[in-house]
Amino acid sequence: MSLAAFVRALPKVELHVHLEGAMSPRTLLELARRRRVDLPATDEAGLREWFRFRDFDHFVEVYLACSRVLQHPEDFQLLLDDFAARAEAENLRYAEVHFTIGTHWKNGAPVDEILDALAESIGAAERARGVTVRLIPDIVRDVGHLTADATLDWALAAHRRGLAVALGLSGKEASSPSEPWAAHFREARRHGLHAVAHAGEHAGPASVRSVLDACGAERVGHGVRSIEDPDLVGHLRETRTPLEICPTSNVLLGVVPDLASHPFDRLRRAGVEVSVNTDDPALFDTTLSDELLRLAEVHGYGPVEVAGLALAAVDHSFLPAPEKARLAASMRAGISEAAERHLGHALSWRGSGT
After folding, report:
1. Per the domain annotation, does 281 fall within a domain?
2. pLDDT (tens digit, 9 = 90+) per residue, 124-134?
């Protein structure tokens, strides 16, 4: 009987993962070869060495290099197909995936054709692999309004086709404010898109307050530095505003020194809604199972707590209520099956409110 086997068999949902950051080293090398893009390494071992991040600026450098190899619609299909295959292996049922279309627009990629290509691959992933993917096109804080306008237009087009669920905000929160993008989020909400924003990662609690106030963020990407402000923690608890927490990312990018110092458990015990996510799994060499197992080891979580975290992500998702209820029921059945198979007994628990 094995907690690790139980966790790996769990049905899962992920709410904070970047499509470009999920590009496997093999896919990155293949696309770089196709598009004649020079990289600092020519094999997977060399790429993994390059992925040892010195700081956030180094991470951005790598992230943009991954983006540069994506030039034609079929490149984006290869990336989405790669993501879906890995998701299926992880028993990931549903994912809300950040996608920085503005970067590709600036690079001259044909954004309308990219939307068609992704629509085809997303449909194929659901039919062939049972993995449902929805997109969160994100504005990068440190870009001009033309790029942000293009991102909003693309997000609305994707939303009309049932592919996008929210408008996101990413970029360097410590040096670029959120307020300039308030109108974009108002327009997105007017058309039925939800609002998500990165904050409280490399900047403090004030950045979290700014995305709540300026952008109307319904979930906060990372948000871990909220722990520094007890009043903000209380506000997040009372409003049930979820934090999308990415533990390994926070360690590797220097937000916290190690997992034992991470505020995940303190936020959870304070009553803040939290989910567990990978952020950029290929760049950080992690999976959602890995993230759950690391938290379980550090904080002594057992199957009940881990299953509760898996279900919390369903509760925090932007699925319509009937689809959310169906997914929650399917998840509970899958959790029960995994418990019987890998723990040798049924799981007795109260769940997470889904």
Report:
1. yes
2. 999 999 999 99
